[in-house]
């Protein structure tokens, strides 16, 4: 066994394997711990639109909420404008106070209503945060209404105890909430699809790129560098179309939502996979096998900065800015729109295509600058 151990450590790939395992721990620990540090404190970056159509009590409530809620409050929008921004994921929730709020609040026979709209085509934490806001706001307004109503009731002279108790009971819940979700998510499995697709596609592309690079090195001088590059392109395109089709079929068969249809989902997944393939292989073409360490770093950064797990608004500035230049961010946006509904995936697809062209261009330039390895002259045997 000692001999086998020495032989293993005499091979460079054994050392590379150990270093790779170590680098995974270092890279993921540093990136994830710095990216998620202070995330909960940055929930104040989330945006809520308040649309008030009542100029009496509703205006007072809207003004109080604007000053007290620990979020970015946007006012002055019409209901249609607010709903459009919510659909485009520029807002996390819309709160509407209808024009008859005061009238219903002061009527003994009716209850006032506040309407909340949440876009579920977002990271899962958005829904839970906004549902908590809805419950707290409604409870606070109910408490204020109860105090005001009870005070008014006590002013009345000679009110029978039974009537006073009934009146107080009615006043404690004078405001009720109506919560509407746009683009609802059918189960936790569908909520996790964007992260799953990004993780599976990037890791698959990264491992495929590693093996393609090893095959390229093994070919040596049997074919020219441009033939090798052309073969890479054909292999990548063919593999992206086939593998993305299989993945999309599996998601569909296993109950995945596809609001925009199977065809668009497949084509988008194919574009995403092709972009990831050239993105990961770019580092390998430029740096050789050490390029894998860049790919490991990119994997970790993109998982935290893409918005698949935590809203990008809650990340610190560094990860928000770097995420804007990485393909996984647009992968998540496009998948959410195609899978759950939303503003469409046209912009995200355009950015992915641009990143794809840039990666292909860098790889082309690196290939052009590479020198052809010198070929040792053939030894001619001497004749006697």
Overview of the molecule:
With 384 residues, the protein is α/β, with parallel strands linked by helices. 65% of the residues lie in helices and 8% in strands. The chain has 15 helices and five strands. Strands 2-1-3-4-5 form a five-stranded mixed sheet, sandwiched between helices. Strand 1, helix 3 and strand 2 form a beta-alpha-beta unit. Helix 2 runs parallel beside helix 12, helix 9 crosses helix 14 and helix 11 packs antiparallel against helix 12. The chain is elongated and about 90 Å long. The two termini are 50 Å apart. The relative contact order is 0.11. About 1% of the residues have low confidence.
Features:
alpha/beta; five-stranded mixed β-sheet; 384 residues
Arithmetic mean pLDDT = 86
Trace the largest sheet across and list its strands.
Answer: 2-1-3-4-5
Number of helices: 15
Please write the string of helix (H) and strand (E) elements. HHEHEHEHEHHEHHHHHHHH
Number of DSSP E strands: 5
End-to-end gap: 50 Å
Question: Stretches where pLDDT falls below 50 for ≥5 residues?
Answer: 151-155
The proportion of residues in beta strands is 5-15%
In which range does the helix fraction lie? Answer: 55-70%
Backbone structural class: alpha/beta
Membrane topology: Multi-pass membrane protein
Pfam families: ABC2_membrane_3 (PF12698)
Keywords: Membrane, Transmembrane, Transmembrane helix
Subcellular location: Membrane
């Amino acid at each position: 066994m000692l001999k086998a151990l020495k032989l293993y450590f005499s091979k460079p790939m054994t050392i590379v394997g150990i270093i790779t395992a170590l680098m995974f721990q270092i890279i993921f620990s540093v990136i994830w711990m710095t990216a998620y540090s202070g995330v909960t404190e940055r929930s104040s970056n989330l945006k809520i639109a308040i649309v008030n159509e009542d100029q009496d009590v509703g205006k007072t409530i809207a003004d109080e909420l604007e000053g007290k809620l620990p979020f970015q409050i946007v006012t002055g929008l019409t209901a249609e404008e607010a709903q459009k921004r919510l659909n485009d994921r520029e807002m996390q929730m819309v709160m509407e106070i209808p024009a008859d709020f005061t009238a219903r609040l002061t009527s003994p026979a009716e209850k006032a209503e506040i309407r909340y709209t949440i876009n579920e085509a977002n990271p899962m934490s958005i829904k839970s945060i906004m549902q908590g806001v809805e419950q707290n706001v409604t409870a606070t307004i109910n408490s204020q209404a109860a105090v005001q109503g009870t005070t008014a009731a006590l002013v009345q002279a000679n009110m029978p105890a039974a009537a006073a108790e009934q009146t107080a009971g009615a006043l404690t819940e004078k405001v009720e909430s109506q919560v509407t979700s746009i683009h609802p998510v059918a189960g936790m499995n569908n909520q996790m699809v964007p992260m799953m697709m990004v993780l599976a596609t990037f890791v698959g592309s990264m491992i495929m790129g590693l093996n393609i690079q090893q095959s390229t090195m093994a070919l040596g001088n049997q074919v020219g560098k441009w033939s090798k590059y052309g073969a890479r392109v054909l292999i990548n395109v063919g593999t992206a179309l086939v593998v993305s089709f299989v993945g999309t079929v599996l998601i569909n068969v296993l109950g995945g939502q596809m609001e925009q249809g199977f065809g668009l989902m497949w084509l988008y997944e194919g574009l995403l996979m092709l972009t990831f393939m050239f993105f990961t292989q770019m580092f390998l073409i430029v740096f050789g096998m050490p390029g894998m360490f860049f790919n490991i770093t990119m994997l970790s950064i993109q998982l935290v900065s893409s918005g698949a797990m935590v809203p990008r608004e809650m990340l610190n500035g560094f990860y928000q800015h770097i995420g804007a230049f990485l393909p996984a961010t647009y992968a998540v946006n496009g998948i959410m729109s195609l899978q759950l509904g939303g503003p469409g995936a046209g912009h995200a697809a355009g950015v992915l295509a641009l990143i794809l062209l840039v990666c292909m261009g860098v790889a082309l330039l690196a290939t052009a600058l590479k020198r052809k390895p010198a070929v040792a002259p053939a030894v001619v045997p001497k004749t006697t």
